[in-house]
Batch of 2 targets.
Target 1
Amino acid sequence: MANEFQRRKLRNVFAAFDTDGDGCLLQNDFEALAERWGRLPAVQRDAALGVRVEALMLGWWDHLLTVADSNHDGKVDMEEFLTLVDRLPALREVVTATADTVFDAVDENGDGRISRTEHSRLVDIWHGRTVPTDGVFDLLDLDGDGYLSRPEFALLWEQFWISADPSDPGNAMCGRIPEQ
């Protein structure tokens, strides 16, 4: 059962995924997400990465439809989406496997690390709009070197999806979680 923090976090994720704002998730929302993520410079430069990103976004939809569409109507509403909270810890490997594709898509210059600017683009692409990220990167930069390494990113990504603890820094991976 989702605690209040997880409910807020997943409402924020739902809002990012619900690209047309109609209150339910459909395949076209994930197609729009794939298109949005396809605008990242690294994805535009690398056709194979573009294929991976599109497969990831559409794969999220396929998986979501399978595990959350309890009434089998071909769409996922917020209450159905919240059922994921209890399932995500068992999907740890699935969640972690998506981190590499997201990392590669966000690593604009291909240097094997995510800069503050690249992370800010991740947040904006995630939400489909510019989102303030003041202080967020400093929470995420676990070793304080000014970048997110691939291992740091993978840990933070896992925390973002699975953590119920508001103090885990990965919860801010896609921007701060709104209080309401």
Note: Residues 4-172 form a domain with the Recoverin; domain 1 fold (CATH 1.10.238.10).
Target 2
Amino acid sequence: MLTTADFSTYAQWAGIATLAFGALSGLAFLLKWGIRFRLVGVTGFMAVLTVGLFSLGLVPFTRTVIPGAVRFSTVFDSGAAQAVIVVPPTITESELTATLQQAASDLFSMGRLGRGEDQLTIRARTVLHPEPGVSQPLLLGQIKRSLSVREDENMAIELFPENLAKLPVSPAGTPAKL
């Protein structure tokens, strides 16, 4: 993953290229070259590119990592106030809690539209296969978080123990690895 230092380096090189194209554009106007207006366009584009790279060099890229979270896939996201993730059927209760918190962090965006709601609801589900050729979706829990506050201290996690009890269990008492 690119870091802010990488973008700062790219911005420096893009700035040098912008100055070079600017000088070339000035020379083209002095010598009345036919491509002088195209060079002005290239110089303007390079200036915009340089400013963009410079701004990416200022903003730190951070991703919160919640310990104990397992990998999940987003299977539905309305872009507003609802999303659904799928987790493996081997998940434990503590892993589910951590995974819901991780999903709440990953799916947060200031650009989400509430459409009358002020909370993002993320539901976690898994798919069980009770017999060959039969798939049964199973809702395991949900988390509700603020749509407007990145560091939401009032996230509400709700687990569904009756559905967690339906997960396959190995003889040792932990969820079975399928």
Note: Residues 73-164 form one domain.
